[in-house]
């Protein structure tokens, strides 16, 4: 078998490097071409094709084709091209899109790596490039990007620890070295927590709604796709046979994210919480394990990238045309923005899992897998997340497009934005009406699932009806809700003042030791030079201070000697 000439991420990274130097329009066209070319390239690459290399002196596989990497490559390439088109027509400059393409390229590198070493290298590069994409916008995005970088640095460090531990246990970084994911007992735990940052485990999630509403609207379209979905891919590699604890965490994510989204007025913050909620279904599918649940998880990855990017594009158009981020400051836009309204409605029905749309197919697979394995608590939690999703998007859609009236004339999406949104909306409908087309690209086989049964349709309609009735009662109370604090309102101040206390305390300690050493040196010099007069001038208090200073100096010398000895032994 002939290896590919280049892994698919290389042309994307090359386009990122060239884009700032070839002019804005030509550069964006190059970016669209490079990302779009990934789709046929990946589709035509036969399963099992790989590119072995030596990385840092270890055996590695820079490009590995299997069903999971193929599905990720198809959707990553397609949505990357759409996002670059959207960027071009949303006034994103060349440097921002170059950062975005570098983010796409490193994400492709992560999902096509055939070993843990390659994955962790691209994982960390993905964190760097996404941070730069956030930072570039400036303003409030800078601090949010800093917090984002810190959390992903911690998560990446934990995953790196897991990779090293796995190597000690398995003797190889290659995925093929083990048949059941990460080896040993400690490595999977470290990996679950490290990857949990990326997928938004409850308690590790606050970076998501903190970061994604901050940068340019086009940057948010990229950000909503790659980090969390690469995390789902990584979670599967760690637990290919499932893990119930992970499944229940996914169910909690689905409920928590939907609940928090319902309380938001910032439109992109609302959508960000729903990334956590929808990724919860994917994580639950991975945790349940088996062909149906795993297929549902990755089908939901594919579908979610479509409708979530579409949601960020439609909301981005609202912000682009009105300059308003807050739902309370817009309204009645359906009359002036018909294309945006229709494509938003398709995306909202898709994410909510309404029959006839793609979310109904993949979400139903995960729910069915939980039901068939008699995981009743898990099943009910996932259903509750579905009700919360319907409620949130009734609130967002009704508030932005139906209720009230915006106080000035507003243009609809421009030509390029419309092309991108209509294309993605069409796929949301296509994969909803023809689920067999989705099943054909899923990486698992052998499951038996019929999408459009009476029971499944009744379930989807019942969730929608419960949410519609619920919104009638919740509409007024929700309007009175202000900004709802999340867990970061607790740990951000603790981290800030805790770090400050450590720095100040260390500085003061060093200054105290320095003063004591200087004092002892002066007194010692005086005693040696003029012993009789110097000792005679010392009072009782001076004797105490001299003794204390000598004691601190001795302790300091001992610490230095111990440190040197430790370094020599290591």
TrEMBL record:
Membrane topology category: Multi-pass membrane protein
InterPro entries in the record: ComplexI-like_HydComp, ND/Mrp_TM
Keyword Metal-binding: no
Principal location: membrane
Compartments, as annotated in UniProt: Cell membrane
Single GO molecular function: oxidoreductase activity
UniProt keyword list: Cell membrane, Membrane, Oxidoreductase, Transmembrane, Transmembrane helix
Residue intervals of the NADH:quinone oxidoreductase/Mrp antiporter transmembrane domain: 114-382
One cellular component (GO) term of this entry: plasma membrane
Residue spans crossing the bilayer: 6-22, 29-46, 66-88, 95-114, 120-137, 149-168, 188-208, 220-239, 245-263, 279-299, 305-323, 335-357, 377-398, 419-442, 454-474, 546-569
Protein name (record): Na(+)/H(+) antiporter subunit D
Organism whose genome encodes this protein: Haladaptatus pallidirubidus
């Amino acid at each position: 078998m002939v290896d590919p000439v280049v892994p698919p991420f290389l042309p994307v990274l090359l386009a990122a490097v060239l884009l700032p130097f070839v002019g804005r329009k030509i550069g964006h066209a190059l970016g669209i071409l490079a990302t779009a070319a990934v789709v046929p390239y990946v589709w035509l690459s036969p399963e099992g094709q790989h590119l072995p290399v030596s990385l840092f002196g270890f055996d590695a596989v820079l490009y590995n084709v299997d069903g999971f990497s193929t599905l990720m490559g198809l959707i990553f390439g397609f949505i990357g091209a759409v996002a670059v088109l959207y960027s071009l027509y949303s006034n994103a400059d060349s440097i921002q899109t170059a950062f975005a393409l570098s983010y796409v390229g490193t994400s492709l590198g992560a999902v096509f790596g055939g070993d843990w070493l390659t994955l962790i290298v691209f994982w960390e590069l993905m964190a760097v490039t996404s941070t730069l994409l956030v930072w570039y916008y400036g303003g409030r995005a800078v601090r949010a990007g800093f917090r984002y970088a810190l959390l992903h640095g911690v998560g990446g460090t934990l995953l790196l620890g897991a990779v090293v531990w796995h190597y000690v246990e398995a003797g190889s970084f290659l995925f093929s070295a083990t048949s059941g994911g990460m080896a040993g007992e400690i490595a999977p735990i470290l990996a679950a927590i490290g990857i949990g940052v990326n997928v938004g485990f409850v308690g590790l999630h606050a970076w998501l709604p903190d970061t994604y509403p901050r940068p340019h609207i086009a940057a948010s379209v990229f950000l909503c796709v790659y980090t969390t979905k690469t995390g789902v891919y990584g979670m599967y590699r760690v637990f290919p046979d499932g893990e119930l604890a992970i499944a229940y965490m996914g169910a909690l994510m689905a409920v928590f994210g939907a609940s928090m989204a319902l309380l938001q007025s910032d439109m992109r913050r609302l959508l960000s919480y729903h990334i956590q909620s929808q990724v919860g279904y994917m994580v639950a599918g991975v945790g349940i394990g088996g062909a149906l649940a795993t297929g549902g998880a990755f089908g939901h990855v594919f579908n979610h990238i479509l409708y979530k990017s579409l949601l960020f594009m439609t909301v981005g158009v609202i912000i682009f045309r009105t300059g308003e981020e807050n739902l309370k400051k817009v309204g009645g836009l359906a009359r002036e923005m018909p294309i945006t309204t229709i494509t938003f409605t398709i995306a909202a029905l898709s994410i909510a899992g309404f029959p006839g749309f793609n979310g109904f197919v993949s979400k139903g697979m995960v729910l069915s897998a939980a039901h068939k394995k008699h995981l009743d608590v898990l099943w009910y939690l996932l259903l509750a997340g579905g009700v919360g999703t319907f409620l949130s998007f009734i609130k967002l859609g009704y508030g932005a497009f139906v209720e009230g009236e915006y106080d000035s004339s507003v243009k609809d999406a421009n030509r390029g934005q419309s092309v991108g949104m209509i294309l993605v909306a069409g796929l949301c409908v296509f994969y909803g009406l023809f689920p067999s087309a989705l099943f054909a690209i899923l990486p698992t086989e052998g499951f038996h699932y019929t999408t459009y049964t009476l029971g499944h349709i009744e379930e989807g309609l019942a969730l929608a009806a419960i949410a519609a009735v619920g919104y009638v009662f919740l509409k007024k109370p929700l309007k009175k809700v202000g900004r709802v604090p999340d867990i970061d309102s607790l740990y951000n101040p603790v981290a800030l003042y805790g770090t400050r206390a450590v720095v100040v305390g260390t500085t003061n300690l060093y200054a105290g030791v320095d003063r004591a050493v200087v004092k002892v040196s002066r007194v010692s010099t005086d005693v040696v030079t003029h012993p009789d007069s110097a000792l005679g001038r010392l009072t009782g208090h001076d004797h105490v201070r001299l003794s204390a200073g000598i004691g601190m100096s001795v302790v300091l010398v001992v610490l230095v000697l111990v440190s040197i000895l430790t370094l020599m032994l290591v």
